[in-house]
Design brief:
Length: 379
């Protein structure tokens, strides 16, 4: 770094830590080498190392430097990675992926719309599709895309507030007519948050925002679904065997169906059913899933990895016992996620010794609550 820049960085560090020693490290790997500024430091306020580092983190990130703080044999070592001030993403890629995803979801919505029209003809009931026409395709598309976008924007806004370098949401198009027509969306954190509380807050912000959006879609979908006498059902109708707890409660509360009646979910309700299952999957304490991120803010990397393996094994066992398609799907994705990560330890926050505080406690309570109310149960 230039002399003026180096002096500015040292001045920022000196506001929180006394610099004892400076060295230049080189990390090699993958045919590349990276130079790192390394400092041995002493906290100016030993009683609030986390607050001091968090403040330094928020000063350095906008200047293009990612700091890590480690405690080794009683000494603090601060390493600075020059990450640059680039955005870390290409706007054209973000926009194109969003457009393609809207198209695949819209096509899927149209196919579901036609299925609802077919239901209108088969058992002669007034469906939302027959009542609203093609407007229903737009409503269904928004019902799918909306919660996904709100979920990722929850992550993104929290990242911006906490100065964590992250990309806007990348929507992932799926295959039209299969599932929801999308594989969801992700934001990419370029580097870890400063401390455990920040990691937990960023992780829980997405599920919390998405959860509220899914409830709104579920309420609309169930309130506009159809209650018919069981004898009207013809061949081809399949009853849901496992359903998220909250979804089941909403269905029972809104419809008040009797034993000789059955609720036929309209496409919006069916989409909310899938969204709630995806929400449950994402909250499981495995690898880089949001639930896994919250767990990592609370425990060390070894415990985090062990819980992920145990959870995945338990879901695989449950799928073999109950032999339900939705459990097979969840087990498959959990196993895939574990294989993709290669069981690599989660790096945790930028300050390795950070302890979970009030933010992580609140995040964990929200996490446990949402996980509990979206767990699939027999219907």
């Amino acid at each position: 770094m230039g002399a003026a820049v180096a002096e500015d960085i040292r001045d920022l560090i000196s506001r929180q830590f006394a610099i004892v020693e400076y060295t230049r490290e080189t990390i090699s790997g993958g045919g590349m080498s990276l130079s790192i500024d390394a400092y041995r430091v002493i906290p100016l306020n030993p009683g609030s190392v986390e607050s001091s580092f968090r403040e330094l983190y928020r000063e350095l990130i906008p200047r293009g430097y990612y700091p890590q703080l480690r405690l080794v044999s009683g000494s603090y070592y601060l390493r600075l990675f020059n990450i640059g001030r680039g955005r870390g993403f290409r706007v054209i890629t973000v926009v194109l992926m969003m457009i393609v995803t809207i198209i695949t979801v819209a096509i899927t919505s149209y196919l579901w719309y036609e299925m609802d029209l077919d239901l209108h003809l088969r058992i002669n009931i007034d469906t939302e599709a027959s009542r609203l026409g093609l407007l229903y395709v737009l409503i269904l598309t928004l019902s799918i895309m909306g919660p996904l976008a709100i979920h990722e924007m929850g992550h993104y806004i929290a990242s911006r507030i906490l100065k964590v370098p992250a990309t806007p949401p990348y929507f992932i198009p799926g295959f039209p007519g299969i599932g929801l027509g999308t594989f969801g969306a992700v934001i990419l954190m370029r580097f870890a948050p400063a401390v455990s509380d920040d990691l937990a807050i960023v992780a829980i912000s997405g599920p919390l925002a998405g959860f509220l959006a899914i409830i709104a879609v579920t309420l609309y979908g169930i309130s506009t679904s159809y209650i018919v006498p069981r004898e009207l059902l013809t061949a081809g109708f399949q009853e849901i065997q496992f359903s998220p707890l909250l979804f089941t409660l909403i269905v029972n509360q809104i419809t008040g169906q009797r034993g000789d009646e059955v609720v036929i979910l309209n496409p919006v309700a069916y989409a909310s059913y899938f969204l709630m299952l995806i929400h449950f999957l994402n909250l499981l304490p495995v690898a880089q899933l949001d639930g896994g991120q919250v767990l990592r803010a609370l425990v060390g990397s070894k415990v985090h990895t062990a819980v992920g393996v145990i959870t995945t094994s338990a879901v695989i066992l449950a799928s073999m016992i109950f032999k339900i398609d939705i459990l097979y799907t969840i087990a498959f994705f959990l196993l895939l996620i574990l294989l993709l990560t290669g069981l690599r330890p989660h790096p945790g926050p930028a300050y390795s010794e950070a302890k979970p505080g009030r933010g992580a406690l609140v995040a964990s309570m929200l996490w446990i609550f949402m996980l509990a109310v979206t767990i699939p149960i027999p219907t």
